Amino acid sequence: MELVSRNIAEMSRALAQTSNPELVEGFLYSLLTPSETDEIAKRWALVKDLAKGRPQRDIAKDLGLSLCKITRGSRELKKEASPFRRMLETAGYEVPRDFSARRAKQLERAEQAAVRPA
After folding, report:
1. DSSP 33
2. Cβ atoms 63, 46 nearer than 8 A
């Protein structure tokens, strides 16, 4: 575990020091396998979709991810000091401060719609 945390911290510092997006992109493609790149890109897409208020099941279907991964992303966005939230905001995306309350209302509306007679 020490190896992982030490090296992640070192890479994080190096990435934070560059102002060259092309260098970071090239580094990521060089570091990661195509499968890892696909997985990371999908996780980034899922948190962007969650922040926009898309339903978890739709995200899972569109991105081919398990609901478990979507739920994990949702839990992270609900945390006030979430790194996901902060990175989305750094990238220019708006993450509503009431993310968890808004999401609860969406789920409630969906449940009500599901039990209404046709």
Report:
1. -
2. yes
Indicate the SS3 state at residue 60.
Answer: helix
Structure tokens at 84: 């996901």
Output DSSP code: residue 98: T
107-111: long-range contacts (C-beta < 8 A, 24 or more apart)?
110/55
Number of residues assigned to the chain = 118
Q: How many CB atoms lie within 10 A of CB 21?
A: 8
The pLDDT of 61-72, averaged and rounded, is 93
- In one letter, which amino acid is 111? E
Q: What does the H/E/C string look like for the chain?
A: CHHHHHHHHHHHHHHHHCCCHHHHHHHHHHHCCHHHHHHHHHHHHHHHHHHHCCCHHHHHHHHCCCHHHHHHHHHHHHCCCCHHHHHHHHCCCCCCCCHHHHHHHHHHHHHHHHHCCC
Q: pLDDT digit string (tens) for 15-48?
A: 999 999 999 999 999 999 999 999 999 999 999 9
Query: What would the mean pLDDT of 8-17 be, rounded to a whole number?
Result: 96
